[in-house]
Specification:
With 272 residues, the protein is α/β, with parallel strands linked by helices. Helices cover 42% and strands 11% of the residues. It has a single domain, classed as 3-Layer(aba) Sandwich (Rossmann fold), CATH 3.40.50.720.
Length: 272
């Protein structure tokens, strides 16, 4: 296993993308600390990792609270002796545009995405530097970081800010052999079959057409590859970036988006 003996922290370890990434790290041998603001959500992923033969612990809490973040990293080091991998995935979805969004909502969303990544990167890096073994960090972006999505101003702004956060952190930590990279997912089919069925039913109903800024629509019709990723499709790229295989990859982004960012905007993949 490529990550045997490594210790990882994953923020925003929900059952969908974050939880799937945490389970993927565990399957490669890493011991994984799972963060979520909801203790039950974090524990659910921990239980699945243990059921699958891995080792994990829950570290629930608010990623914008510096006291919590410092304590969470300390808990991981106390239990497992080190931190080798950090995945910054925590996010809150507040799908509003500039006109409808309050400044409090905007600030909250920005803090969870950017301040949360800043704090966990800060204290995870301190632990990595103290251990002297280097490490790897991966920030989870979105195609919304690179494109203008209406009605989702906080998410787009926060994720876009993480592009240069990744580059700057990579340059700062390079002397300590800590690599910092990013992955860009896109519209993702839910990991849970029930949620996927609900999404398919909603799309088939056509109700999404009544929304001014629909966030759920027939993505597969718009995708160049005629399908969009599932959370499992992001795991191999994550393993590449945090393992020895990616030791010369630093300060960059890998898009796992079925070609979404490369598509010419006028092209309709449904046309012959």
């Amino acid at each position: 296993m490529k990550l045997a003996g490594k210790v990882a922290i994953v923020t925003g370890a929900s059952p969908n993308i974050g939880g799937t990434l945490a389970r993927g790290l565990a399957k490669e041998g890493a011991r994984v600390a799972c963060n979520d603001i909801n203790p039950e959500t974090a524990q659910e992923v921990v239980d699945k990792i243990i059921e699958e033969g891995g080792e994990a612990m829950a570290i629930p809490g608010n990623v914008t609270d510096e006291t919590y973040v410092r304590s969470a990293v300390d808990q991981v080091v106390e239990k497992w002796g080190q931190v080798d991998i950090l995945v910054n995935n925590a996010v809150k979805f507040i799908t509003k545009g500039i006109i409808d969004m309050s400044v409090e909502e905007f600030n909250e969303q920005m803090q969870i995405i950017t301040t949360g990544a800043f704090l966990f990167s800060k204290y995870a890096a301190k632990a990595m530097i103290s251990a002297g073994n280097g490490g790897a960090m991966v920030n989870i972006l979105s195609t919304a970081a690179w494109q203008g999505q209406p009605g989702n101003i906080g998410y787009c702004t926060g994720k876009s800010g993480m592009i240069n956060f990744t580059r700057s952190a990579a340059m700062e930590f390079a002397e300590h052999n800590i690599r910092v990279n990013a992955i860009t997912p896109t519209a993702t089919m839910p990991a849970d079959p029930e949620r996927r069925a609900m999404m398919d039913k909603y799309v088939a109903s056509g109700k999404w057409k009544d929304q001014k800024f629909p966030l759920v629509m027939p993505f597969t019709d718009l995708a160049p590859m005629k399908e969009v990723p599932t959370p499992d499709d992001y795991v191999p790229t994550l393993i590449l970036l945090v393992s020895e295989d990616g030791r010369m990859i630093n300060g960059t982004n890998i898009s796992v988006d079925a070609g979404a960012l490369s598509k010419y905007w006028l092209w309709n993949p449904k046309q012959p």
